[in-house]
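Fold sample X.
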Amino acid sequence: MATLAPRRSRVRSERGFFVAMAAAMLFTVLVGFAPTYYLLPWLQGVTVRGVAGAAALTPIVHVHAIIFSAWILLFIAQTSLVAIGRTDLHRWLGPAALAFAPLVVAVGLWTAIDSGRARNTPPGWANAEAFLALPFTSIGLFGGFVAAGFVWRRRSDVHKRLMLLGTIAMMVPALARIVRNFDPPLLPPGVAGALVLVNLFLAALVAFDLSRRGRIHPVTFWGVAIHLLSWPFRLHVGETGAWQAFAGSLLS
């Protein structure tokens, strides 16, 4: 019995950590998009391009907001169910998440292409074709990590880290909007500043593994490495002739 107590404490601590991370991501999304979406009637925010938030709300933007908000809420629900010991309901919701994830990917790609066609790129990105590599890579990371998470769903330590890493990949747009509102500026504006902040989520996962396990979980190690390497990768790819031709065919 004495040996079981520390193990149970560790399990509770781990479950609490993933709930806290899910809550932090929900908070990030709400703060990032409150001025231009969630609280637009009261805050009347402007987009990163200086356009009134209401003017940017096309039908696809509404669909995108609903789908991505639903994913964050589903992620909160799933981590919370595990934390309170309702793994039966967690498994019951699993097929719904499995069916929902491809919709997140499809709508994310559709929104990125629609925005690129309208040349709605953030400041510092005059080339819409080059910028398209950024959201496409984020969506690809989300899809890859989440798909792997479903494959490894019977290994809880692997599954939960993969699902977390996938959802972290979708935090950049919200973080870019948060960085824009820093006064005085504390970080580079837009995507560059968002990249700095998204690393805080990754660092939290690494720190948790080290504090609770004494070592970095292999999924954390490789997942964080993929995240970090994805940024120079997407910046390089976006400038290549092959990508420019591909993106141009999508945006034409």
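Fold sample Y, listed below.
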Amino acid sequence: MKTKEYLKELSLTILGVLIALLIDNYREDVRDEKIVRSYLDIVAEDLNFDIINLNKQLKQDTTYAKDLSYLSDVLTSNQDLPYLKYSLASWTKQNAVPQRKLSTWDSLDYYTRSLYSNHEYTIRKIGFSTIVNSGLSHQIEQDLLKKITIYYTTDSDNLDFVTAIDERCHWLGIEFLNKYQGSFKDIILTDNFNVTHLRNEASGRYSTTLTEMRVKKMTIEKAKELLTSIENY
């Protein structure tokens, strides 16, 4: 009898411990779920931040691209400058622009300076970094976690690479022109300046800016898709 009573009491004790553990695990799961939900709310805030600021940059990029295109057209077609058959600008489509004597064109300083106004953008990762460092990413449904990870790794790296291309390239005319802020129109008409550099920079930066704008638009669409997935989670 004593053995049976002992086993009965032991069984009840073990059962009680197991029930307590199950309750604790349930409470932890509920707590972790709330924590992960708060982290996803931060990711949603980051995505809204990206959408708003990338749209603002696209407006700036549009003006920037127009300036670059106009400058490239002027430097390629203006009769004040020697025609260089193998300049980069000669490989891109150029638009006809009214002939204006560069020696009297005060606006040339403004358009040339706009060459150096590249707009970079880095995706904000506060929520994603919080999830990674929390060790609770396993609490998120795998398909959603995959979408989040791709946006903040592959898509983010691609945006960083594309928007930083101008910074990685060695634009040959910049170092020379920076010595003559405010008097570009005088300098480029002298024998000391190889106008090929400036033509190529205008044409090259116009091309890379269009690529940046395309990638930023794609990033906005991906951010919107991910935001919808999080809101429906």
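Sample Y note: The chain has a mean pLDDT of 78.
Also: The CA atoms of residues 77 and 136 lie 60 Å apart.
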